[in-house]
Amino acid sequence: MKKILILLAVVTAFTACKSGSKKKGTDEKSAKTEISLSAAGSTFAGPFYKTAFNKYFDLTGVQTSYGLTGSGAGIRSLKDRVVDFCGSDAFLSDEEAAQMPAPVVHVATCSGAVDIAFNVPGIDSIKLNPELLADIFLGKITNWNDAKLKAINPDVKFPNLAISVVHRSDGSGTTFIFSDYMSKISKEWKDKVGVGKSLNWPTGMGAKGNPGVAGTISSTVGSIGYIGSDYAFAQKISFALLKNAAGNYVAPTIAAVSAAGNGDMPADTRIMETNSSAPDAYPISGFTWIILYKEQAYNGRSLAQAQATLQLIDWMLDPAAQGIAKELKYAPLPDKVVQIDKAILRTVTYNGQPILK
Amino acid sequence: MKVTTIRDNSSTRNTKNNIFLGVVIFFSLLTILPIILIAGELVVKGIGQINLSFFTEIAPDTLQAMVAKANGEIIPGGIANGITGSLLIVALAAVMAIPFGIITGVYLYETPGKRYSNLIRDTADVLQGVPSIVLGLIVYLWVVKHITHSYSALAGSVSLAIMMLPLIIRSTEETLKMIPGTLKEAAVALGVPYHKIILRVLIPSSFSGLLTGILISISRILGETAPLMLTTLGNPQINWDITHPTSAVPLLIWQFYNDPNMVELIWSSSLFLMGFVLTLNIISKRISAKHSIH
Amino acid sequence: MNSDKITKYFLFAGSLLILIVAGGMVFSLVGGAIPAFHKFGWHFITSTNWNPTEGRENYGAMPFIAGTMITSVLALLISIPMAFSTSLFVSEYFRKTPVASVLSSLVDLLAGIPSIVYGLWGFYTLRPFIMHLGLSPQGFGVFTSGIILAIMIIPYATSLSNEIIVMVPNELKEAAYSLGATRLEVIFNVIVPNARSGIVASYILAFGRALGETMAVTMLIGNDNKIPHSLFDTGNTMASVIANQFGEADGLKLSSLIAIGLLLFIITALVNTAGKFIINRLS
Fold first, then answer.
1. In B, residues 176-215, which contact C (CB 8 Å cutoff)?
2. Which residues of B touch A49 (CB under 8 A)?
3. Pick from C11, C243, C264: which is nearest to B130 by CB?
4. C248 closest CB neighbour out of A164, A171, A205
């Protein structure tokens, strides 16, 4: 027993030393910086944020913990003031913003695509237009050999196979972006199902998380569903080319998502970029935001803590961080949006004084 | 006059006896089947990822994983931040739950039958059935929001301690009930003060059962994700400050699961947890074998 | 004050903690659930609606209550033969042999597997198996979840039972053997009556665990917000819907989820009361 305890103590000490050396020479910086940040929210942007925050830690010694709680829980955490900022795939509406204890600002950080993934043996790629998409997800088209599918995919040999729709069972920003697009292109969808992070699905089975949907599609022949693009890429799942508002069939590439972001951008960055009219835009694209309080002197927050928060978010807009987004298959922000974001950050104050110059 | 024939039914009884033994063995083997299947799958899928850096390095991020996979290498890094976090949180939870659990269990044993005791017993059983996520939500309200004003290891420990409590209370009481009453009566007859009876007679003789209850509750909470997500959030670095967000192995498993490039790491982390539980189990068996009075 | 009284008060004070915790929990749950009950009334409990669309929100708990009960009962029924057999194997038939030690450790291992791993194993291994057997077209459902739950609760049922059975006094058993009883008869006529309270307590503990299990079930039950029509149909449970929707919910929906949490609390209490009643009837 004693031997085991001694062993445990040795391992712990060893680990503590080893973790010190992982800080790669920022030991002096981290000794001085006792600041650490915490944030929670969107799982859609999670991989990007976590990687970027790790890089920021290597550069500055400021450590940021990001929890994959979901956008709603992230917003709740911000409301309860237990995190420095939150990540969300849906911006707060005016009513929702009014429920926060103090005014907030939104900073768009990147955008991503929602892929329409499917599993039909022998078929790698199909084209879908808005009417078909709506009919499939509303449960009106139920077999892959339906004439309407054949009409726009004349070269594809569809088998006689039932279509199984797969959707998210948990509330999700991905669902929000998807349903926003669907409501724009189908009146029936808008009336029957609407927009939201969870929906009253007319058909289909629910799976938990992007991995759940991806796994279900991979293992269920004849299935079709929607997943975040970084997931579809990593798991090598077939996706559909979608007809955008300009009439072109587009694949969910980074360039196509960036094209969707080149439209009008309001000064507070709160806009949905689905169904963009740009010619090479991918129609189901969406921004993801960081939300924080406009006035940072709340709850006994120190100036140093507020500064650290702002500096991190400002860094997220710089080429180094945006480059990480691109490597992870998200679309970096267009320059126009970066400018707007930076302007917004410079309106964030501490006791009335702007924090960043 | 009625004549009752006495038949020797011992052969029927023996047959029944043997059949039952067969049934018991069959079902016991059936129980092992899922263990072997699951453990086997964890080993096969996870062992490749386990090396020294698994224990000493912090979790990788998705970019590192993506690059490694593209190059055909194993993913770098380990789960050190999760291991230390789990140790911290579980140790703290155990320190909070064990004393209260045992005290309450002893109390129930000493005063059975009273309405208050029944209330406690029923409360413990009901608490068992509360989904861990509901506990997480409530501890979020109590501790994260009002005490630490931040996600913290302390909040995580509180939620886990609440989960341990009913198990420890019930197993303490049930184990004490099985101690022959003569032991206690002898001590009382000798005029031993009450607290000494508890410490020197009751607890040592029920040690094995107590340890089982404690162990099974620790095993249970080692793998809990939902309450920790709502209370400790997670941390990419190793953290020993209980008022700050901290990582834990199940949280890392959840993160790996949700990450497109790190799904394979689930298996090695789970293998670690399983191995840890097995080790705890073996240690406790040795300890209770030494202390057992049977 | 003599030391015995001090000890008694000390014990009493310690026992208050669990009541305070449970009481605080009920208080927080009720507080959070009030908006939902205010809007929907008692109808909330029996309604089968679940419409999260803004402007048309309508929530009801019945599908989840049904799903929870069906899966947990199924899990308990499946686990009892295995848990009881394993207990007897380890604590009676092969007691103190290395085989028993190995089996006991293996069973305890089950408790250490994180529930998300059960969910994953169920998703990647059990589900295709069930699809292969033709029992269900997509493998999700009450039956699959029931099996996983049964496996998960076996260690709770066996561990405590093991300890209890072992502690049955040898004299009682020896007396029965000396009268010519077979092993089987000793088990059912001596051990079980003597250890009955502890054994049933362990099953109640196991059942409680099944009622509240979240992660594993949510990956396998299909997340269909309706009452399951058959053993292989999909459905949803109270814990699963809370886990799924909690991260994104607010306002009325959050309140409905908390109300479901409160209902689960109450159902667990009712189940335990029924269990106690049965135990009393038996002894």
1. 177-180, 193-195, 198, 208-209, 212-213, 215
2. none
3. C264
4. A171
Residue A121 is classified by DSSP as T
CB nearest C52 (choices: A69, A172, A200) = A200
Domains held by chain B: number:
1
Q: Is residue B127 over pLDDT 90?
A: no
CA-nearest residue to B265 within chain C is: C117
Report which of B141, B156, B163, B158 is spatially closest to residue B247, judged by C-alpha positions: B156
Please state, for a pLDDT cut of 70, what percent of chain C lies above it: 98
Q: d(Cα C189, Cα C184) in Å, to the nearest integer? A: 8
Looking at the domain assignment, is residue B114 inside a domain? Answer: yes
Amino acid (one-letter) located at C201: A
In a domain, B60, yes or no: no
**C63-282: in CATH 3.50.90.10:** no
Does A81 sit within 8 Å of B149, measured CB to CB? yes
Mutate to test the interface with C, among B12, B115, B126 (most CBs of C within 10 A): B126
| 3-class DSSP string for A300-330 | CCCHHHHHHHHHHHHHHCCHHHHHHHHHCCC
Any domain includes B107: yes
- CB-based contact (8 Å) between B29 and chain C? no
C-alpha span between C226 and C50 (Å, rounded): 9
Q: Give me the CATH number covering residue B122.
A: 1.10.3720.10
Enumerate chain A positions whose Cβ falls within 8 A of a Cβ in C.
69-73, 75-76, 164, 169-172, 193-200, 205-208, 212, 215-216, 219-220
Cross-strand pairs, C209: none
C233 vs B: CB within 8 A:
no
- Of C75, C82, C214, residue with least CA distance to C148: C75
Query: Which helix (H) or strand (E) is A86 found in, with range?
Result: strand A85-88
Q: Which residues of B touch A210 (CB under 8 A)?
A: 258, 260
**Residue A68, pLDDT score:** 86
For the segment B30-83, what is each residue's pLDDT rounded down to a tens digit? Answer: 888 988 898 888 888 888 877 877 888 888 888 888 888 778 777 788 888 999
In a domain, B261, yes or no: no
Q: Are B62 and A47 in contact (CB < 8 Å)?
A: yes
DSSP secondary structure, C186-206, as one string? HIIIIIHHHHHHHHHHHHHHH
Which region, left, alpha or beta, applies to residue B250 given φ > 0 means left and ψ of -120 to 50 means alpha? alpha
**Alpha-carbon gap, residue B211 to C55, rounded angstroms:** 54
Q: Is the dihedral of CA A236, A238, A244, A250 positive or negative?
A: positive
Touching partners of A (3+ C-beta pairs < 8 Å): B, C
How far off is chain C from B248, nearest CA to CA, in Å?
A: 12
Distance from CA of A95 to the nearest CA of C (A): 12
Give the 3-state secondary structure percentages of chain C, helix then strand then coil, rounded to 5: 75, 0, 20
Q: Rounded to an integer, what distance in angstroms lies between the CA atom of residue A136 and that of residue A250? A: 19
- Rounded CA-CA distance C150/B248 in Å is 26
Domain spans in chain C, listed from the N-terminal domain onward: 3-51, 63-282
> A139's torsion region: left (phi>0), alpha (psi -120 to 50) or beta?
left
Asked if residue A100 lies in contact with residue A80, where contact means CB atoms within 8 angstroms, the answer is no
Local confidence band at C128 (pLDDT 50, 70, 90 cut-offs): confident
Alpha helices in chain B (DSSP H): 10-46, 52-56, 62-70, 80-110, 115-128, 132-139, 153-177, 181-189, 194-196, 203-205, 207-222, 226-231, 249-258, 265-291
**pTM listed for this prediction:** 0.83
**Residue B105: domain span:** 81-248
All chains having 3 or more CB pairs closer than 8 angstroms to chain B: A, C
Contact A76 C51 (CB under 8 A): no
**Which is it for strands A241-243 and A249-250: parallel, antiparallel or unpaired?**
antiparallel
CB-CB under 8 Å, C218 with A200: no
